[in-house]
Every structure is written in structure tokens, then in C-alpha cells.
Amino acid sequence: MKKVICSACIALLGWFLTAPVFGQGQGVSLNKIIAKVDNYYVLRSDLEEAYQSYVGQNQTPPQKCQLLESLVVNKMMLAKAEIDSVVVDEKIVDSELDQRMQYMVQQFGSDKNIIEAYGKSLEMLKSELRQQVKDQKVVQKMQQKITTDVKVTPRDVRKFYDAIPRDSLPYMPADVEVGQIVRFAKPTKEQKDVLRQKLLDIKKRVQAGEDFGKLAKETSEDVGSAQNGGDLGFAKRGAMVAPFEGAALKLKPNEMSDVVESDFGLHLIQLLETRGAEYHARHILLRPDYNRLDMTGPTRFLDSLRTLVAADSIKFDKAAHDVSEDKATADAGGLIRDPQSGSSRLAMDGTMEYAMFQMLDTMQVGKISVPLPYRTEDGKSAVRLLYFKSKVAPHTADFKIDFEKLQTIVLSNKKNRAIDEWFRKSVADVYITVDPEFQSCRIFGTTQNSAASVNGSGNE
């Protein structure tokens, strides 16, 4: 079988685009440069982190030579992006960085726990992570550029399927279609009043002469912007949620708003300047304690709605479209889709959310669950109904039943080949060296060519 040089590249890219790695507590040996692509380096720690990302997800890691090859391809994409002037919008980087920092706070429980875990200030961690995020976005954009014309037809899928010997067809796990209707728990008036008073007290302190940026660093719960004194940078009209933007645009430069409530919490906003259709603001955000929200209201609402759906007074998909507060699924009638493939069929195995797996395991197809406590990915407390729409039992791969999954495999293979071809055409544009320790890997199937040498030496 012909070797595809980027066979691990797409899978590794998923790790590369999501892993918030800061080199926590690593020794000097892990900082050894094991490959160079122009001015971009691959460290031994990069290779170990890529390997451990598979282990941590209970997946069988590729050979380290394959992982190194993929890391070099990623660095080559960065080098070629620089040559080809491929750039990403800094606002996209900032937005992604804010999400990463918020995710870390949710995982560690507090800013203090993050600082203790990494032994670095949040400012330093954010600075390190920002370059990673920017590089990741550039690699993603380069990959999209390389594979933008890759398409898969039903004929391609049929050809792939027919080429598999019948006794070698994979055994597919059970998969299901599931819908949901989500309602968020709301903070009580008392909780909001406490936060509102805190923000009003902060506003008085600023009016008395204290620095808004310093107070934002100390008090704001928007981790991403707090480290920059609450600064959100320039935003185009329509980019922010309506309550925030409406309040900000009513202000004069350096003026502060009253307390503003949005889906994210309560804000104190200060407008810094306007520039055409853009405005520059900073804010202090306080959020309610999501662990102490009252679940009674959304639970009763969904319980009543469940009775109506069960009596066929309203269809589940219509109810989801009309009242579900999960925007990602509401427009699709509540149907949950696989974030990677976009398919509505979810594998009912260890990759499924555990609480959902447990509930579906006790339900019959066509039934609706009771209201269930639910924690969203961004840490919000909610309640949801699950609708068990359909199930396909474990089976040998079938062209009709598994078409979407087969299509995803074929598309991935074609993208791998496109990146393979791109590399072969582009390798002469960059200079590659790989440490002699990895000489046996025969990176890219060769030990050297006119521009790419794999017999270089690494640096400490």
C-alpha cells in the first residue's frame, strides 16, 4: 500500500487546535529541538505532548515517527503561510483565547488553582497561549486553503466501500439520533441584586479616582479580557450581544454605563473611543454562581412541555425550535449533531456524554426523558429533555446505513492525499532539518533533498 505522508496529520491537527499546553513542569531534555522548518521549531516536548494526548483519550497513539512527521508538516504550514502572506484576524485569535482561558477556569475551578498548577501568572500563561492559538488558527487556515477544493461524491463512497473485502468490513457500534430541549437556570433577583450592587460600588470607586483597568483585573470574571484591564479591543457593530452593544454605543468616550445584564452576566462598561463603524470598550463582568441557581422554574416548564409533547399536542421538533435556549440545536428541531462529522447519528459508546448514555440506555426509541439537570460546555447550569428519535443496533458496516460515516472517512482520506501532494510541491520552498536521533524515521520518505535535510543537528 502506498504511504501517505500526512496520514496522522488531520488527526493530530485536532489535538494541535485544541490542546492548551504550557510545558508544565518539563525538564531541560524535553526542550531539545528535534526538527526545524525555516525559523519554526519542533521540541521534544511537542512530540511527547502529542503522544500523551492520544493516551489521555484512551486512543492508540500513532508511531512517534508519524507524529513527528505530522508536527513537521504543521510547522511547514506556518512557514509557507508566512511566505504566502496567509494571516488570521487578531479578533478571531482574541475570541478563541478568551474561550480557552474560560475553559481552563472551569476545569481548574479558579484562577488561583491555575496559577498553582502551572507556577506562572495568568498574564504569562495567556501570553504563551496566545501565540499557540495564533499558530493553530494559521495552520487551520492553511489546511482549509489546501483542501478547499476537495469534494466527495456518492460514487467515491461506493468505490471505497466496494474495495473493502466483505470479510474485512468493520463492525459498527450502535448509533442513535437524539434531540434535546434546553432551558437555562436563571439567577434569582436576590443573586442579581448582589452582583448589581458590587458593580455599582466599583463604579463609585472609579468615579472617586481608582483605575478601571486595575479593578477589572482584580474583579472581572471575564478571564480573557480581565488580564488586559477589561479591554475588548475594537468591535464592529453587531459583533457583541445586543444589550452590551446598545449600552456601549450610548456612551461618550471615557463614560461608564449603568449595570447592564446580558446572557453572559452583569456588566459595567466603559467606552474608550469610536472609529467609524467600530467602537472600543472595556468592561467588568460578574456572573452568578452557576452551582447555586434555582432549577425549579426551568424544570417545571419542561415538565409541562413534556406532557404536551407526549399527548401529541405539539411535535418535539417544533417545541425545540420555539423554546429551546440551546441555539446550536434549536434551529435543527433540537437534533444533536456530531461536532466533527456534522452527522445526526451519534455513536452510542464511550465517546458519548456519560449522562446521556446512561439515560438512553434505559429509554425506548420514541420516548422523551423527564427533565434532567445539565451542565453546558461553558459551565452554565440548565435542564433538558432528551428525545430518543432512533437507534441502529451494532452491525457490520452497511453502505446505506453508514453512508455518512463512510463519506467522512473518504473525505478525510482525500484531504490527507491533498496535503500529501501539497507537501511534495512545497517542500522545496522551505529548509527542513531533523535531529539525527530520528534519522531512522525517514521523514517524508527521504533522508534529504535539495531543500530539505533530515540529517541536521538539534540544539538544546
From TrEMBL:
Alphabetical UniProt keywords: Isomerase, Rotamase, Signal
Keyword presence, Signal: yes
Coiled coil: none
Highest taxon of source: Bacteria
Keyword Signal: yes
Pfam families (UniProt xref): Rotamase, Rotamase_3
A molecular function (GO) term: peptidyl-prolyl cis-trans isomerase activity
Residues covered by the PpiC domain: 173-273, 276-387
Region forming the signal peptide: 1-23
InterPro entries noted in UniProt: OMP_Chaperone_SurA, PPIase_dom_sf, PPIase_PpiC, PPIase_PpiC_CS, Trigger_fact/SurA_dom_sf
PANTHER family associated with the record: CHAPERONE SURA (PTHR47637)
Protein name: Peptidylprolyl isomerase
Organism (species): Spirosoma agri
